[in-house]
Amino acid sequence: MPANFRPTVIAATVALLFPAAPLFAETLPPGTLTVTADAMDGQMDKELKARGNVVAVRDDQKVTSDWLDYYVDKGELVQAGDRVQMTQPGSDIVSRRLDYSMQSRQGEADDATFAFNQGGGVLRGKSEKLRILGDKHYELGRTTANTCDPGDESWYLKATTIDADYRSNIGVARNARLYLGGVPVLYTPWIDFPLDGARKSGLLFPTLSTGSNGLDITLPYYWNIAPNYDATLFPRYIAKRGLMLGGEFRYLQPGYTGTLYTEQIEDKETDTHRYLWKGEHQQQLASNWSWGYGGSYVSDNDYFDDFSDRLAQVSSDNLERQAWTSYNLGWGSVFLRAQRYQTLIDDARGDLIPYARLPQLQLNGGQALPAGFRWQLLSEATRFSHPDLQEGNRLMVYPQLAWRADASWGFVEPKVGVNYRRYDLDAWRYASDPTRQVERSKTVTTPTFSVDSGLYFERDSEFGGHAHTQTLEPRLYYVNIPYRDQSALPNFDSATTDFDWTQLFTENRYSGWDRINEANQLTAAVTSRYIDNESGLERLRVGVGQRFYFEKDRVTLPGEAERSRDNVSDILATVGGDLTRDWRLDGAIQYNPEDSRTEKYHVGVYYKPAAGKTVSMRYRYDRDEQVTINGQTFEYPTRQVELAAQWPITRQLYGVGRVEYSLAAKQAFDTLAGFEYNAGCWTFRMVGQRYLTDIDEFKTGVMFQLELKDLSSTGSVADKLRLAIPGYSKTNE
């Protein structure tokens, strides 16, 4: 007789006589079975029969039923009916009949309804024959299942079997059909999926879209190679182009990480082999030494136009490739890299192709010194290569010394520096005069001096009926850089920067090191802020500033006109802030006081009262903006409106949209519209888009995404909407 049989019968008998007896089970040793029922009989060493409102409990297992037979010599077998419910932690099974061993935790349930919540996700449904194969392991025969709330069958899997093994958190469905709204939409003879939402090898649901290339279907396969390695393979059928094969490999180790991505296609429309390669690697060789590489390369200039939507296209006509290494010195760092670009412009002019840096060596650093002083060093030595333009070497060394004094009421920071540049150029003849050769060696030494200073004032105030702190922050920034003739220097990497609020407080109006402007100038600006005392939010920020020139700047880039005004710059003003928790504002304006006209401005208003509710409007004006499209540069006035929104139409249906409309050209450059339907258990998104790819050339497409709760998603529409609509949020998060 099993050691625990006698306490079992005693507990059952006491429970029959005294309704409060189940409390007695708490004092029994592990493995003891307690039974309560309206009536019980049986032989103590063989079997027990219970009838009417039966409740049987053994450790964390509980069975309730109309009747129950218990057989000790059959491994503590329980046979129960007509209405049976068996519960364990994370498991609830209701069935017509149960045959189950409470000792081995194995058995079968007929016509069962189940709900499993053991791996972080919920799996529920019905099964004609549910086999319990041990602790946390189930086989569901002739079953329908989903991850929805009880009673929600908006989607479900119908399979011959589903093997749900919560020990490995893997589910395997065989001969499975996916039903949406009661309609079968997908069949697979075999599919496995994670029961806890973790990564798991197997087929993913397909991605579907349609557009200028016709029907576009991708069927991804995810391969979870190891906890720190995985890969995704995705055959993609494009009706007008053919079959594309793609893949992504990712790796992660304590000392390094990286990705490798490729797409390959025999394009039947162009009758050529086309491809994309993209990779990135970062590795820590020591605590202060690292290296890496990264970049992209495509087979031809039109690759992204033909195979990507606008939001996924690269933002530049130049694809970067580089390899680098960096060493931390404590007080600074050494950085070495080789860098070049692939230019995606047909017959591109030389000035549209960036120089390659083969190589570039940088030594940068700085340290605080006693009494508020600080030194800083910027330096680099670079070899510049180009297929069409002047090539050569450039050495730049820029030591600086600054002193800063801070107080609660303000600050002052004077700074001095000396910028030294040396050029060693390759042989080169001027196109306009082939007999004239450039100077092979050039040096330029430019001293710099600046003083940055500001004051802080604040007072108690009210804004929108709430207590705020209002600040007043005047600032003066003086720069003096003597003139150095740089007209004979090549332009390897310099360009004019936008005249904006940040540039007001920058000593050089050029990026790069080939041009350093002449300066004897003073920036005067003032900023005022309203800061909420309770939340700390900046409710409103207003700033206005202007630069005053005491001498003319004679430094220019090739083709750049000299500054037309000698004494003052345009006036800049900015405004922004979180007006309320729902409303946000930002804007800026550049005003020409000499000609009494506005050069450019933008203003944006954003409203987001809750997740899934956002509306934004932005207007941008530029009197003469230069735009380069496919290597051609145009100058025209910009008057552009951008509208974007995500808003509920009904409780479950959301509309999404975005439009960029040019008032000058009287046409929309980019239009996106669609909807999201959140059924709770699944979410469907469909978005159509029409956008400009070239001069008077548009591309259209329709994208789809289906997300099944706790199971899987297809497509990347939500990611694109995040880029297109400010404040967008997924409705099922």
Automatic annotation (TrEMBL):
Role according to the record: Together with LptE, is involved in the assembly of lipopolysaccharide (LPS) at the surface of the outer membrane.
Annotated keywords: Cell outer membrane, Membrane, Signal
Gene responsible for this protein: lptD
Segments forming domain LPS-assembly protein LptD central: 172-268
Compartmental location: Cell outer membrane
Principal place of residence: membrane
Lineage of the species this protein comes from: Bacteria, Pseudomonadati, Pseudomonadota, Betaproteobacteria, Neisseriales
Protein name, per record: LPS-assembly protein LptD
GO biological process per UniProt: Gram-negative-bacterium-type cell outer membrane assembly; lipopolysaccharide transport
Subunit structure: Component of the lipopolysaccharide transport and assembly complex. Interacts with LptE and LptA.
Signal peptide: 1-25
Family label: Belongs to the LptD family.
Domain (LptD C-terminal) ranges: 273-652
UniProt cross-references to Pfam families, sorted A to Z: LptD, LptD_2
Gene Ontology CC terms: cell outer membrane; transporter complex
